[in-house]
Amino acid sequence: MVKTSLPLVLLTRPRAAAERFAAMLWAERPDLEIMISPIMEIVYLKPKVLPQAEVLIFSSVHGVKGYIAAGGAPARAYCVGVATGECAHTAGFDVLQIAPDLERLKPVLGQEERSLLQVRGVHATADLVAEFGHVKSVIVYDQPSIGLSAAAKGALASSRSVVVPLFSPRSVRAFAAEALRLDGLYAAYISEAAKAAWELPSIAAETAETPDAQGMVVATLKLIDKV
């Protein structure tokens, strides 16, 4: 059976990240219609004190940019995610390792003898200070919720199928609060933790095999083919 129409892909990440992900999807499927409606925005913060450490830990591009905006100088760094590593390298940081997710970086951090600084946002999936005695942390950005656009709400209220890739437990909860229907709504989750945060369990879903952008591209395309 040949499909006569494709679902709309709704991206709710902050705009720069959403545009990068849209480009990855279009590289695989140029025929996709993609709508970008950030459900959160990035606000950089300047801490009163920027703690000193021998090695930094970045888990997002926003952490790298926020650290620089706060007056931090390039140093050695562990990074989570290819985009984070590339951003840090471009900014002059000595990237020691790029891990696909924080869980796979933790064994390395546990063996690290140098002082470490977790550069994070207000909302973080892991508090490394609580897990490791030699880790300090600093908050350099926030992601306040701003809600979906009128166009996105209109798309969700229509009869057209909508595929929504969701990249964190917090973004899942924020989107769930605004989801107007279940019929015709499909979600691609970056992880089982993100999927567990969804409060509408009857939704059709696909979970990424790897918790990164490429894994989400694969999961999103699989879901589109199932709609």
From TrEMBL:
SUPFAM superfamilies per the UniProt record, alphabetical: HemD-like (SSF69618)
One MF annotation (Gene Ontology) recorded for this entry: uroporphyrinogen-III synthase activity
Gene3D superfamilies: 3.40.50.10090
Pfam families xrefs: HEM4 (PF02602)
GO annotation terms (biological process): tetrapyrrole biosynthetic process
Domain of life: Bacteria
Segments forming domain Tetrapyrrole biosynthesis uroporphyrinogen III synthase: 32-217
Name of protein: Uroporphyrinogen-III synthase
Origin species: Lentibacter algarum
